[in-house]
From TrEMBL:
Residues 34-225 form the ABC transmembrane type-1 domain. The keyword Transit peptide does not apply. This is Carbohydrate ABC transporter permease. Keywords: Cell membrane, Membrane, Transmembrane, Transmembrane helix, Transport. It is found in: Cell membrane. The chain crosses the membrane at residues 33-58, 70-90, 102-121, 150-171, 204-225.
Amino acid sequence: MQQIFEVPPRWIPESPTVAAFVEVWGTRPLGRFLINSAIIGLVVTVLSVTLAFFAGYGLSRFRFRGASHLAQFILLTQMLPEVMLVVPYFVIMAKLGLTNTYAALIMAYTSFALPFATWMLKGYMDSIPKELDEAALIDGCSRLAALTRIVGPVAAPGIAVTSVFSLILSWNHYLFALALTNREEMFTFSVGLASFMGEYRTTWNFVMAASLIGAAPLLFATALAERSLVRGLSAGAVRG
């Protein structure tokens, strides 16, 4: 611990140890924080990607009055600062009795992830030839069957990219989790990590150990989707 504050800093410690990784589990319910973030992150990812899949397909394939305005409105929602929304959202959740619940955080995070996911998947759908849909419809598929059986598998790389970004967004979110939870057993990982920082003392060895532990699930998810990430980012970057 003392080596952290040495000046000049010691880049290579004299006696490396993993004690902080072991002891950090006993100072806070770190496992509970991870479970809370995992539950919220997975539900938000499934909800936002599923809804964005259909929304992105509709914006990409159908031309209707107000389509461009709808797309611009979706983009506009990303420009609103979160700090402007947290107080009214907290008041609504408090009146509904949903503070300290998964539902409040899931709805909040989905509202942030969904517009982003919709734009991501719309861009990827634009790169998929419409002839695939038309061929499926000619062969007797319904529009829904063509979407799920033909377009869906082709769009798998884009779905993987969007899923990873949605998971990262919900996992790292701090402000709404801080405002909507005041019981330690309901803290997400980001709020739990901040609890290691006290008013008079911060245990930096525990902060850094917990940060690495919290980053591990995201690194694992990114590694699983590595090939799809590369294909999805490159294919969704252009249209045609």
